[in-house]
Amino acid sequence: MSAATAPVDLRGERWRLRVRNARDFGRRYARRTDGVVGLAILLVFVVLAALPNVFVGALETATTASGTALEPPSLTHLLGTDGLGRDMLNQTVHGARISLTIGLLATLITILLGAVIGIVSGFRGGRIDNVLMRLTDFFLILPTFVLAVLLAPIILDIVGDDAEIAGIKAKLIVIVVVIGLTSWASTARIIRAQTLSVKERMFVDRARVIGSGPGHIMRRHILPNVTNLIVANTVLTFAAAIFTETTLAFIGLGDPFAPSWGQLLNAAQAIGAPSLGAWWYIVPPATCVVLVILAFTLVGNALDDIMNPKTAGRR
Amino acid sequence: MMRMPTGPGETGKVMEDAEQEAARRAAEAGQEAVVEAPVDSEAIEAAAAARALIRGRRQWPLPKQADPTAPLLTVENLRTHFKLESGWVKAVDGVSFRLDDGEALGLAGESGCGKTTTALSLVRLLPSNARIRKGSSIDLFGIDLVPKTEDQLRRYRWREISIVFQGAMNALNPVRRIGEQIAEPIEVRLGLTQDVARKRAAELLELVGIPRQRAAAYPHELSGGMRQRTMIAMALACDPAIVIGDEPTTALDVMVQAQILELLERLRRDLGLSLILITHDLSVIAETCDKTLIMYAGKVAEEGPVSRIFTAPRHPYTQKLLGAFPNIHADRRSLETIPGSPPDLRNPPAGCRFNPRCPAAMDICREVEPPEVVYPDGVRVACHLHVAGRDGAVGVTSADVVGWHRQLPVIEAPGVPAVASAGVAEPPGPGSQP
Amino acid sequence: MSPSYLGRKVLQAIATLVFVVILNFMLFRLMPGSPERILLRNPHLDAQSIAAARARFGLDKPLLPLEISVDPPSLKVNPDSQFLAYLQTTASGDLGLSFEFRGESVTEVIGVRFWPTIILIGLAELIAIVVGLTLGSAAGWKRGGTLDRVGNGISLILYSMPYFVIGMPLIIIFAAGLGWFPTSGMLSPGAQYQSPIDQLLDFARHLVLPLATVSLGLIGGYSILMRSSIIETRGEDYVTTARAKGLKDRSILRDHAFPNALLPTVTVIAINLGYVVAGAITAEIVFNWPGLGTLTVDALAARDYPVLQGIFLLISVAVILANLGADLIYGRLDPRVRA
Ligand SMILES: Nc1ncnc2c1ncn2[C@@H]1O[C@H](COP(=O)(O)OP(=O)(O)OP(=O)(O)O)[C@@H](O)[C@H]1O
Ligand code: SF4
Ligand SMILES: [Mg+2]
Fold first, then answer.
1. Is C6 part of any domain?
2. What percent of chain A has pLDDT over 70?
3. Residues forming a β-bridge with B157
4. What is the mean pLDDT of chain C?
5. B167 phi and psi, to 5 degrees?
6. Parallel, antiparallel or unpaired: strands B242-246 and B274-278
7. What's the rounded Cα separation, in Å, for the pair B385 and A67?
8. C236 to chain B: which residues are within 8 Å by CB?
9. Domain count within chain C
10. From the first residue on, what is the mean pLDDT of each consecutive set of 10 residues in chain B (434 residues)?
11. Pairing mode, if any, of strands B161-164 and B242-246?
């Protein structure tokens, strides 16, 4: 064998490492029964949300309602009808799309805000950190749900109830923004803590010495190292976002023309479905809400246990 | 599988001779009747007298089922394994030893060799994935603790065997006053009133050199050395027969280390305690212990009187360990390290577990587990270089753990101090101030 | 507890309070749409009372006590400003007039709704704390056991349920279906009571379902929190020490693990207690409970901003006080922060 070894295929090596890590992660995840169950539930709902028309046809409105008001479940209406005679199965499946979309957007805003504030705060330190963390503390203490309830109508008053922004109902956008604005604080806290510990590690210093700017370091060195945490946190935030969205819609801040599950339950409450004993108006959306939040929580916990450097290895 | 001869050569030749010799001896040992060790009846009597003396000063009677003439603690063929998804970790795999009244035994060996597991097995303070295997026996005053239920075993904890854990910061409950924590076992386990317990706790604190007023302090208000003293005071609360110190001085600075060791030494002398001291610091064992037990990968490598083992180590691992350790005898420049690392205990090597790292390893070492033999000077070794029948070495089975020790004058009759009602009247000695 | 710890915490609370007041001021004065549009958009007010309100709120005055202008550089001090007037009126408990409730003062409107919420949520918190912490610590202590699997499963499901998702089925089953309890309200409408006892019984019957709803909703979260806290504590060295001392399993849990595991939950519970005032908005809606929660939603529907603003202020104060309380309790329970 010659002394000169072939140049190491760094790129290939790194790729192989990544595949191995992914496989290792997959194996560990597969062992978490709760996580797998949660994932399965989510998959079902994602499929429903992606193709509601395929399963139950177009969204029924008051004018296209296919039944009469408050029919109990039957063969024609498997889950009965609502107060306006719309098929509950149709409404619930379409609700998946709306609830999940709002949840997703709100989560993205929350995580984006939380991650940026957390990373900047942790990395820059000093006065910036001080100010940002005061703000974070404030938002942690503040009754954010009440703030959301307060903010939503004010914003709606300003932009106008029926305004549309880029073709989307302002009401929905306001809900998304309000959830995002009021729930980023805990994410920022977690990300900041992780950023601090990453910063401690050598390579940041080395990168700084080489002459890269702080922005570059944050993007190229800190971000990859907090990604795990962000992913796990995103999933848990998703659960919280859906919870908040459902609640805001239930108290009447939703858009009646975009029936999310919370909106459906709001309508059911409005016509007094519980006292009428019209359980089929309530059970389908309520079950979906609980299943989705539960599923996100299960997946989030499993991811957190596997990926969070603090909790990993505690088992 | 036999190793292929590498060809003629000086070292190869020597090794082959030694191998053949060892194999021959091993074969002989199997056939020959085990030579009875000469029994020194005088020593046995002296030991019994000392034992009676120490047990006579106990403040609380022996456990009900105890045999007053039985040795304090005999551990035979202890096997404690941990269950992992990837298999069983054989952390302690056939360890035998004996501890007599008033004796101090030092447990040493590389990190992960099973020292802590051995100690915790005694009172079964093991993690939930641990199992003590069948065939193990732990006899305390002749009472086998292995078959006891958790609830039965509880009665022996702290009253007979107490433990000083490593990190005293975490071993003390952060939200309770140290006085309460010391008094707790006195109250709960001995059934004394709260007042008496508090008083005794204060006396114990003074015994370890902490002013009794500090009983109201919380752990975080004390220095590391004081916390370790508190742990020691707590360990003495029920006047136990055995105190286990699991690296009681690591994480303390050298001065404090010395003070704590001196304290343990004094308490042992004054109170007639038996001590099991786990440490990485061989010089600590040399200074404070009567006997030492060197473990390797869950097994006993060598055991015997400190004076013998530290001057004439017989097991290649002990030799390496002593060589790796700086002491007054060693020239620091020639400090050796032990190449390689300890084996994976899920799948330890066949034969002698040390064979991949042993400079003297022979073919037989890779196949046959070395049997334990004991020399007339009381040193027990498990290595194929040491064969029963040579130099007076005697083959031992685990059942002999009791027998072969009888010949040793194990106990020097300690000068037991007058013990006051609470048993802690002795003022702290000089140099024990915090 | 050292005075410096106490002082720091009180200062922090005051700072947060000031922040909230400023936020409140900004939300309603600095928003586009002018204060008139938001504060005085009251169909029930005549021109005269609008003028009176204007005067009281000082809406004619400049906004801030200090005005800094860049071009030309100048610093103007306004001895009389809206902000100061706002601080004054707020401090004196005057939160303005409600739009919805025929010009009643916000303080009165809120006052009426205060006690029903306090009773409902206060009792629910009590039940949830006892049950949740017990369940959580028992489950975590015997991690992986039957109680843990079942208890944690139930807790996770409860944790995923907004109050109204718990409450609506309860109504369907126990009120509409079995008829054991009334479906809504706090007292039977138009009932004539023989004695105060009768009235109390009627109240209790109305209370059962909402109370169950809120308790169940809280139990999940508390139990999950306590469970993970106990699991963390279980591995601590001092728990091993307690075991080595030969204490009974129950004493180890009660005297060593639990007091330590309680620490992280205290903060969460105390903060939650602050929300007692906020009420479980959706639970109140479902049962039409005449508390602050239903008031919030009614005010929301009517865009009754003075009431919303008042509620927000009240809740913020409660939450801030609860936080302060949490810090003080924490200081009592954990000797390490006392120093
Ligand atoms: N709960 C457990 N599960 C699996 N393996 C374990 C567990 N606890 C200990 N072990 C393994 O058992 C072996 C013996 O551990 P032990 O703590 O007794 O070693 P030690 O000699 O005390 O080491 P050290 O000097 O580092 O304290 C180690 O290899 C360790 O990895
Ligand atoms: S220590 Fe083990 S490997 Fe080395 S000579 Fe002895 S038996 Fe053989
Ligand atoms: Mg150890």
1. no
2. 87
3. B161
4. 82
5. -85, 100
6. parallel
7. 93
8. 170
9. 1
10. 39 48 50 48 72 80 84 91 91 91 91 93 91 92 91 91 80 92 92 90 89 91 88 90 88 81 85 89 88 94 92 92 64 60 91 92 92 87 89 68 44 38 37 36
11. parallel
The minimum CA-CA distance between C331 and chain B, rounded to whole Å, is 11
- Give the closest-approach CA distance of A3 to chain C in angstroms: 53
Per the domain annotation, does C33 fall within a domain?
Answer: no
Tell me which of C36 and C250 has the higher pLDDT. C250
Long-range (24+ apart) CB contacts under 8 A made by C189-197 are none
Residue C82 has pLDDT above 80, yes or no: no
Helix (H, G, I), strand (E, B) or coil at C101: coil
Give the confidence band of A1 by pLDDT, cuts at 50, 70, 90.
Answer: very low
Range of the domain at C125: 106-338
Q: Is B57 exposed, middle or buried (0-12, 13-18, 19+ CB in 10 A)?
A: middle
Question: What is the residue-wise DSSP string for B236-253?
Answer: TTT--SEEEEESTTTTS-
Angle at A87 between CA A86 and CA A88, to 5 degrees: 110
As a whole number of Å, the CA-based R_g of chain C is 25
Question: What is the token pair recorded at A227?
Answer: 């990604």
Question: Which ipTM value was assigned to this complex?
Answer: 0.81
> How does DSSP assign B115-126, residue by residue?
HHHHHHHHTT--
Cβ C275 vs Cβ C319: under 8 Å: yes
Token match 């040992």: residue? B29
CA–CA dist A172, B259 (Å, integer): 71
Chain B, chain C: beta-carbon pairs less than 8 Å apart = 76
Distance CA B156, CA B65 (A): 12
Write the pLDDT tens digit of every residue in A47-92.
988 888 887 777 777 777 777 777 777 777 777 777 777 888 888 8
The answer to whether the Cβ–Cβ distance between C238 and B221 falls below 8 Å is no
B-proximal residues of C, 262-281, CB under 8 Å: 263
Alpha-carbon distance of A31 to A287, in angstroms, equals 27
Altogether, the residues listed in chain C come to a count of 339
The verdict on residue C90 lying in a domain is no
Cβ density class A50-80: b for 16+ within 10 Å, e for less: eebeeebeebbeeeebebeebbebeeebebb
Is residue C328's pLDDT more than 80? yes
User: How far is the centre of ligand 1, averaged over its atoms, from the C-alpha of C181 (Å)?
Assistant: 60
Q: What is the pLDDT of residues B183-198, one digit of tens each?
A: 999 999 888 899 999 9
Give the CATH number for residue C288.
1.10.3720.10
Supply angle C-alpha A151, A157, A163, rounded to 5.
Answer: 110
Of A141, A282, A314, the CB nearest to C168: A282
Instruction: Considering the domain delimited by B8-160+240-406, tell me its CATH architecture.
Output: 3-Layer(aba) Sandwich (3.40)
C-alpha distances out from residue A93 to A53, A56, A135, B316, Å: 9, 7, 39, 74
Q: Does C249 fall in a domain?
A: yes
